[in-house]
């Protein structure tokens, strides 16, 4: 199962599942005061809590019995409970959270001057440059839920007005020092390159699996309200412009999501500020969306007419369980409230009854995932169920094979309502229409993180051939494809590796049929041909 934000990020979770973040419904700084009830010197405080970050140690206001030790430790001066302070108390942090992640929570609101993480207490303190910055931060997280690594954290004013750093401990925690220095560098960079705005430019690198507008909306709306999204492809890279209602939310999204992976080791988000200050969205469809104006046309005259007759605007929220968003997020391990478990079964319709077989569907759909079972419906043989091994593979198959002309007919590929493909009971007649491939040696993606994921392309007239033995020449391969019914237009061995070649056929439909027939074709006693679609041409 592919999981989103595998780079140890703060994984977005559903806002509905998170508790409210208003500090008014939590005991105000009670744990703060409890932590600071230190009765001995600073050495014992360290041994009890391990609470040192950036050389800061927490302590109460000095008392006479402990006056000598107070000179050696860092003080946190107290003030009236509930009053604004530039020190912010953050509760319920994950055990593994870093100082850098705590600092990043505060960066969008102003300069961060100190940080203290109490990992044993699941709490932290963040000191801002002034009370105005701290007040902005607390007010912001009163209206939304702050999150670290998928856990809701609670942001409120501390009872203390500053973190005083003792030189004795100034180098006690290098990671805290590094986090503060990085934050300052980021602020300086913003000063020289121009301030951020409400529009982010998002580039998806290493996009092995499909990333849709709806997937981006689900991810970026975890940080705050998304107003508009426009997606496009530039330099063969999928990109998007995402607009938030305010600069603070945009900054928070950039800090939280930049550099994170949507899926394991791929689909990496690279986020920068756009030069645009506002997005002009003309259509609400799968490429662009204005969430503030659901009445925009889709740009498809037929669909717009149907929506006008029905009196329904395009909201971009299709039926539950059949959306690319549900499939992709389900594959990623994100569960939306009320969302059923992700489905691995595809319904393939409008098939050519004379040509379709379970093996043919296994080979074709096997280009995009490991097919577990195939069932051609007994009473409707132009329909079949194809069960993949993982939900994201169903989305790959849908995005690449739906509406593709195969055996003279335009097939349709959608998610099925079935969760699994049932095998026939023993003794039940099936006429060979159901087959189990769970133990097939021909699965392309058995190894986790298989490199084959990096070579997935839509059907094309050019096929990539591999595993060619040295005893087989160009003419033999061309003859084999011609015998399979394909018209060969061009052929080329890879210059540095004669085990691989490209073969160009007369059409995409021909290439689909040829892949079905020629994948695993025996070229010699010990070699079977491997065939996939290519992004190249000859």
Description:
The chain has 538 residues and is α+β, with helices and mostly antiparallel strands. The protein has 14 helices and 24 strands. The strands form 6 sheets. The protein has a 6-stranded antiparallel β-sheet with strand order 11-12-8-10-9-13. Strands 3-4-2-6-5 form a 5-stranded antiparallel β-sheet. Helix 4 (99-106) packs parallel to helix 6 (174-193) and helix 11 crosses helix 14. The longest helix is centred in the middle third of the chain and has 20 residues, at 174-193. The protein is elongated and about 80 Å long.
Rg, rounded, reads: 29 Å
Strand content: 15-25%
Low-confidence stretches: 1-79, 167-172, 189-194, 317-341
How is the largest sheet built, in terms of strand order? Answer: 11-12-8-10-9-13
Structural class: alpha+beta
Give the fraction of residues assigned to helices: 25-40%
Distance between the termini: 36 Å
Q: Helix segment count?
A: 14
Number of strands: 24
Shape: elongated
| Sheet with most strands | 6 strands, antiparallel
Mean pLDDT: 76
Key structural traits:
alpha+beta, six-stranded antiparallel β-sheet, five-stranded antiparallel β-sheet, 25% helix, 23% strand, disordered N terminus
Quick summary of this structure?
With 538 residues, this protein is of the alpha+beta class.
Topology:
Layout: H1 30-35, H2 42-49, H3 67-70, E1 76-78, E2 87-91, H4 99-106, E3 112-118, E4 123-128, H5 131-142, E5 146-148, E6 151-157, E7 160-163, H6 174-193, E8 199-205, H7 213-220, E9 228-234, E10 237-243, H8 247-257, E11 261-263, E12 266-273, E13 288-290, H9 301-310, H10 324-332, E14 345-349, H11 358-365, E15 371-376, E16 384-388, H12 391-401, E17 405-406, E18 409-410, E19 412-415, E20 434-436, E21 462-466, H13 474-483, E22 488-494, E23 497-505, H14 508-518, E24 530-533
Antiparallel strand pairs: 1-7, 2-4, 2-6, 3-4, 5-6, 8-10, 8-12, 9-10, 9-13, 11-12, 14-16, 14-19, 15-16, 15-20, 17-18, 21-23, 21-24, 22-23
Helix pairs in contact: 4-6, 7-10, 10-12, 11-14
């Amino acid at each position: 199962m592919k999981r989103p934000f595998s780079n140890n990020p703060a994984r977005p979770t559903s806002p509905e599942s998170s508790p409210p973040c208003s500090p008014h419904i939590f005991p105000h700084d009670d744990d703060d005061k409890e932590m600071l009830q230190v009765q001995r010197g600073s050495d014992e405080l360290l041994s009890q809590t391990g609470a040192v970050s950036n050389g800061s140690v927490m302590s109460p206001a000095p008392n006479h019995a402990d006056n000598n030790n107070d000179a050696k430790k860092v003080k946190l001066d107290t003030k009236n409970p509930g009053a604004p302070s530039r020190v912010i108390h953050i509760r319920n942090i994950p055990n593994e959270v870093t100082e850098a992640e705590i600092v990043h929570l505060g960066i969008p609101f102003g300069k961060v001057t100190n940080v203290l993480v109490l990992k044993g207490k699941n709490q932290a303190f963040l000191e801002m440059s002034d009370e105005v910055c701290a007040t902005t931060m607390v007010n912001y997280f009163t209206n939304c839920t702050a999150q670290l690594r998928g856990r809701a954290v609670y942001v409120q004013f501390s009872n203390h007005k500053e973190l005083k750093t003792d030189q004795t401990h100034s180098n006690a925690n290098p990671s805290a020092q590094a986090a503060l220095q990085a934050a300052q560098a980021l602020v300086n960079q913003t000063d020289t390159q121009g301030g951020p705005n409400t529009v982010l430019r998002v580039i998806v690198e290493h996009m092995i699996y499909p990333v849709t507008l709806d997937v981006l909306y689900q991810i970026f709306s975890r940080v705050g309200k998304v107003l508009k999204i426009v997606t496009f492809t530039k330099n063969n890279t999928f990109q998007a412009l995402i607009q938030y209602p305010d600069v603070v939310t945009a900054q928070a999204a950039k800090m939280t999501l930049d550099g994170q992976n949507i899926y394991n080791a791929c689909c990496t988000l690279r986020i920068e500020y756009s030069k645009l200050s506002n997005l002009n969205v003309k259509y609400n469809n799968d490429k662009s969306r204005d969430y503030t104006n659901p009445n925009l046309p889709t740009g498809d005259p037929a669909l717009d007419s149907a929506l006008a007759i029905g009196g329904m605007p395009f909201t971009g929220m299709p039926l539950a369980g059949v959306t690319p968003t549900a499939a992709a997020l389900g594959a990623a391990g994100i569960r939306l409230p009320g969302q059923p478990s992700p489905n691995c079964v595809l319904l393939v319709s409008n098939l050519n009854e004379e040509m379709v077989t379970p093996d043919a569907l296994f080979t074709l759909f096997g280009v995009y995932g490991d097919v577990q079972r195939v069932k051609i419906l007994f009473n409707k043989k132009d329909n079949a169920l194809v069960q993949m091994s993982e939900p994201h593979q169903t989305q790959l198959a849908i995005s690449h094979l739906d509406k593709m002309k195969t055996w003279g007919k335009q097939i349709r590929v959608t998610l099925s309502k079935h969760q699994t493909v049932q095998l026939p009971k023993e003794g039940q007649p099936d006429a060979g229409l159901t087959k189990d491939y769970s133990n097939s040696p021909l699965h392309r993606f058995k190894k986790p993180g298989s490199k084959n994921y990096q070579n997935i392309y839509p059907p094309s007239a050019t096929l990539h051939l591999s595993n060619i033995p040295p005893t087989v020449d160009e003419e033999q391969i061309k003859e084999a494809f011609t015998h399979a019914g394909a018209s060969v237009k061009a052929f080329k061995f890879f210059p540095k590796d004669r085990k691989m070649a490209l073969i160009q056929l007369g059409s995409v439909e021909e290439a689909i049929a040829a892949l079905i027939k020629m994948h695993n074709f025996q070229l010699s006693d010990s070699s079977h041909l491997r065939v996939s679609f290519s992004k190249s041409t000859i």
